[in-house]
TrEMBL record:
PANTHER family: LAMININ SUBUNIT ALPHA 5 (PTHR10574:SF406), NETRIN/LAMININ-RELATED (PTHR10574). InterPro entries: Galactose-bd-like_sf, Laminin/Netrin_ECM, Laminin_N, LE_dom. Residues 1-204 form the Laminin N-terminal domain. The keyword Membrane does not apply. This is Laminin N-terminal domain-containing protein.
Length: 276
């Protein structure tokens, strides 16, 4: 058999073989030659009946998220939802819906130029769910752009809450097909799967205005826990600089704003004892 004929046939990928693996870590390794790949419709027939494929991203701490970006190696999904969690105890909140037909699939109206009435309004987009291109298609979710309070983010608590996430879930709900999967032969079913080349989340650590950076506890690993580097001049403490440091509790803790750092104040009793 010629090389051309062999290359046109589907091959099996052995995840135990590094050269054939399509592990989820490949979505974030910055190597464009790698990609994550789901089961095929042959391996999981329920994909034909709209069984979802779910990806969960643990950010390691709370972030103010600006955007979520995906680049697909397969055709983009016919329907997809992005969810977020603020913390481990909070429920999954729908962040964004995507479908080639928002009204049919999600019973939501699509607007090419949406007008937001609330900072925390989840909408449906259609332009990122078309069958074409067959590969390298993008999905871009801008978390805050165009919403009320965008120009005054740190004085808009509802928009801050909307953009805060510690975990993100991408639910691939429906696959694009050519209508040949119902009675297809195995070789055809092997060509239907989800594949993502790149997944990027852009944002900043949620340090309540008392810090700009995060650092991992115990070094970087597969799922590092991150904590804020609190500005020493603000005298705050906690994973997210969410409380006053010991000895600086003379006034209630407050988040910093561009106009006021709201630094914690030293306890007068403690300072008096030190100076006596």
């Amino acid at each position: 058999m010629s090389n051309a004929a062999m290359s046109s046939r589907c091959q099996y990928c052995d995840a135990r073989n590094p050269s054939e693996s399509h592990d989820s870590s490949f979505m974030t390794d910055r190597n464009q030659n790698n990609w994550w790949q789901s089961e095929t419709m042959d391996e999981n027939p329920n994909l034909h009946f709209n069984e979802s494929v779910t990806l969960t991203i643990d950010l390691g701490t709370k972030f103010y998220v600006n955007y979520v970006y995906l680049q697909f190696k397969s055709p983009r999904p016919h329907a997809m939802v992005i969810y977020k969690k603020t913390d481990d105890q909070s429920p999954w909140t729908p962040w964004a819906y995507f479908s080639s037909n928002c009204l049919t699939y999600f019973n939501m109206t699509y607007e090419a130029m949406p007008t937001f009435t609330r900072p925390d309004e989840a909408i449906c987009r259609e332009e990122y769910s078309t069958l074409q291109p067959l590969y390298d298609g993008e999905v871009i979710f801008s978390v805050i752009n165009g919403r009320p309070g965008t120009d005054d983010f740190f004085n808009t608590p509802a928009l801050q809450e909307w953009s805060t996430a510690s975990q993100i879930k991408v639910e691939l709900q429906k696959m694009h097909t050519f209508g040949d999967e119902a009675n297809a032969e195995r070789d055809t079913l092997l060509t239907y799967y989800f594949a993502i080349r790149k997944l990027t989340v852009g944002g900043r650590c949620m340090c309540n205005g008392h810090g700009n950076d995060c650092r991992p506890i115990g070094g970087y690993g597969p799922n590092p826990k991150l904590v804020c580097v609190c500005n020493p001049a603000h005298h705050t403490a906690g994973d997210n600089c969410e409380r006053c440091a010991p000895g600086y509790m003379d006034a209630p803790w407050q988040p910093a704003t561009p106009g006021n750092p709201h630094a914690c104040k030293g306890d007068q009793v403690a300072f008096s004892a030190l100076n006596s």
